[in-house]
Structures
1.
Amino acid sequence: MNSLGGIRSWPASWRSATKTTASMTTPETVTKVAQVLTVAGSDSGAGAGIQADLKVCAARGVYCASVITAVTAQNTRGVQSVHLLPPQFVSEQLKSVLSDFEFDVVKTGMLPSPEIVEVLLQNLSDFPVRALVVDPVMVSTSGHVLAGSSILSIFKERLLPIADIITPNVKEASALLGGVRIETVAEMRSAAKSLHEMGPRFVLVKGGDLPGSSDSVDVYFDGKVFHELRSPRITTRNTHGTGCTLASCIAAELAKGSSMLSAVKVAKRFVDNALSYSKDIVIGSGMQGPFDHFLGLKKDTQTYRRSTFNPDDLFLYAVTDSRMNIKWNRSIVDAVKAAVEGGATIIQLREKEAETREFLEEAKSCVEICRSRGVCLLINDRIDIALACDADGVHVGQSDMPVDLVRSLLGPDKIIGVSCKTPEQAHQAWKDGADYIGSGGVFPTNTKANNRTIGLDGLREVCKASELPVVAIGGIGISNAESVMRIDAPNLKGVAVVSALFDQECVLTQTRKLHKTLKESKRDH
Ligand SMILES: Nc1ncnc2c1ncn2[C@@H]1O[C@H](COP(=O)(O)OP(=O)(O)OP(=O)(O)O)[C@@H](O)[C@H]1O
Ligand SMILES: Cc1ncc(CO)c(N)n1
Ligand SMILES: [Mg+2]
């Protein structure tokens, strides 16, 4: 805030998220969490207002507390009714959280009456905060008045002058400027300039609703320099809450320590990504659908997906090999198709020599094939490829990326497997959050040069120690699969094979044969 030094007074140490303080007896680690307070209205449809603000901050890794100014009965068709909270009660909420938390940023949305703005101003002067983001919400996109002209004078005279940034859309900018016409980018610029004269340190005039513009242009003004933030307009009905989302994202980025311009740029990109990821989702029957703040409801990930990892999937684990595919003149996709058709219960793409772009395209096709048949597909080593093709998981070795880091990148629902030769490694894999281990090489193999073999005894030892299900790997084929499955270990769920399937004339036939052998050995036990 201007009067308080605002975001200019950011502490130098701010960027280190974790600080360690020594206490008398034990050192104590304190993790600082960036914190935003949103002061806004509730949207029962949860696309805008408080609900959007909470989702954005969660998506951006920032804690968000919420003071509710009004409750709206609102859905994708419009606003049916608005209930204002008594100013005294808004004040009690403000006091409650401002006296307790250490907010980095306060963001305001719907402030429906001058009395509510008044209690906000009073509380901000009692409990100074570092930065204030004001989204001067007045009219919903559906045309409903959320804050009438009665708030204009207190906004202009007392709220805007202490704001670090204001983010009006074109209609709100026009209302704040006494009804000037804003229909072009040039008029947005001059509006931004006039609004800046009212006192906020930065102004962002949003052009989402600018008529007849093929790009979506926002005009940013810092008092000296204009920036036009431009992105192609996304054709979608799901634009409900874009404004709240943008302002909350700016607040979240500021709370983490960004400069204003970079916070605004990140926020614009966040809205843009969220809109394009969810442009075709259908939520509600009205003209103004909400979008997905977590960027997760991608259409192509809504197809069939297993809810949890099933250890029995390790039964016939097929691992592809780029050299073998080249040798037999097969594409990865053809190799995978044949293996799945022959009875492989899980696939791992291990394509050490592949070019990234080509591999990604092939991996995407393999995901489609496997998903349509209910078979999981994992990627060896390449976390980036796994994320990009939305594979079911990854398999990593001891010298690849650490499993706990892989888990944090892939999230809680993906499968992670780790190669382990020793009981200690197996125990560590479990502690780090893996789902299964691959243990071997059981027998000598050409696929991995200089790989120490552990033999059936070594495999048994690892299985005994392992809290996780195990798949055996290394030199296993039709002739020796039975001997592997016969070791006395209930958590040994299957065998992983490379050459036995893929260094062969016909992948389909070999997979069928191995499947039969494994089934027989299971039946005999
Ligand atoms: N169809 C679209 N494609 C791309 N970006 C868009 C689109 N619609 C809005 N935006 C962007 O979303 C942000 C919010 O702008 P907008 O002018 O819609 O705010 P608003 O009217 O306050 O939003 P709300 O719908 O929440 O009331 C801006 O960065 C704008 O450029
Ligand atoms: C509660 C609420 N706040 C803000 C907006 C603006 O999108 C809305 N539609 N509803
Ligand atoms: Mg809009």
Note: The mean pLDDT is 90.
2.
Amino acid sequence: MLLLISPDGVEEALACAKAADHLDIVDVKKPDEGSLGANFPWVIREIRGAVPADKPVSATVGDVPYKPGTVAQAALGAAVSGATYIKVGLYGCTTPDQAIEVMRGVVRAVKDFRPDAFVVASGYADAHRIGCVSPLALPDIARRSGSDAAMLDTAIKDGTRLFDHVPPEACGEFVRLAHDAGLLAALAGSVKREDLAVLTRIGTDIVGVRGAVCEGGDRNSGRIQPRLVAEFRAEMDRHAREHAATPAAS
Ligand SMILES: O=C[C@H](O)COP(=O)(O)O
């Protein structure tokens, strides 16, 4: 399982750089603009320069509206700024067809510019609270749009967590659907260390984290701490080892 950490700017990206041995992807966002809030192009560029070259930089394009042209142009902006993972939060899409239309535009805009870029179609575990496409629709949306991964995060950061909205068995189904479609499955949403056993067991490919590696577990007023990134990673590795040693159920 890969570890994606979401700094809110250059200062926190430097903390990520200090913990670079313990993480896999640095994900630029602007949490005060929403769960997948987009940051400025110059911030993405500066973070790309601050993070070791072998660590991919991801950028969120925002909690986007159903405006395919606008979103495609924004996604290209993230790619031009140096992000190679482009994450789109399909906040304003109320049907799978709308979401596919948005993601097709993103995939074309990004891959025409950089064919090896990795496009992530993200929905929300708490979609029922905001009226967007349902979580289990994401793998098919990602597949039909040519995206590379399907992701879930939480839209409303009010202390509720991924499993409060999509229980472990449904997350397992999400991962299965993504894998059947040839995609990676990414999960986030106030994930804590105690969630790692389940996330490992169901075969999650990427876990996205912010609050759990911030001081005091507070994604808003806490800052990312290299020590907490290292501890989180150690826990991931422990679960991976235990899972590998567990005989598969017949
Ligand atoms: O992409 C990952 C998110 O930034 C997760 O943030 P969170 O762990 O604070 O919910």
Note: Residues 45 and 82 are 6 Å apart (CA to CA).
